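Help!! Second protein's tokens look totally different from the first
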Amino acid sequence: MTFTWNRSKLPQDQDRAALLPASTPAPAAAAAPVDDPRWQQVGNLIIGLYDYLRTNVDAHPALAAVIPTLSSAVADYRSRQSADPFDPVRTVLAAVQQQRARDSSIPEP
């Protein structure tokens, strides 16, 4: 099973973390202020989750089920439409925990 990873950055005037699957076009503009520290934290958390999946998905194929959830979290992050910026991260973490409940050998994120 092969997975393709694409990590791209937003322009310098926006937050530094944006992760998209290779086939997803970038949205036009962010709706929330870029300098909001909560969104910057979310960007860093998404990068961490991306790195976690990239590192562990080959050894634990069940984590592949989390990739679409991470892609949705990235889209939510980039659109800045969520009332609570941490909701997308919580959703990804819940998906990881669901897989960990099925396979105890999957490491914690």
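Here's the second one for comparison:
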Amino acid sequence: MTTLAAKTPLKQQTINSLTGTSVWTKWLAFADSQAPKKTLWFLISLVSQGVLFLPIPALLMYYFNAPIAVLAVTLILFFANFIAGMGGSNIRTTLTLFAASIAIHVLMLLVYIL
């Protein structure tokens, strides 16, 4: 009994595994599947930025003596998300900016609180 893996050369298996299952490829496939819901993702991004992320600089600067750069980073990310959503950018840009905002804010919280 032979399998498909036994019939394909090792080099081809390596190329397929590198190109087909990377995190970036999966992210882009997810983003492309969300294209019909672009307005919803823009609203989710805008509301979560305003409610969850904009208070973070006040918290970090008042309680944890963070520099003013925390405020600048938060405002840049907020307006980048706002402009990308209002400017008609594609869904990949909208979701990638939103994910980057989440990651950067979590990183800032970890740096200054821990």
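Reply: Different proteins will give different token patterns, so don't panic. The helical segments are 4-7, 10-20, 23-33, 38-53, 56-63, 69-86, 91-113.
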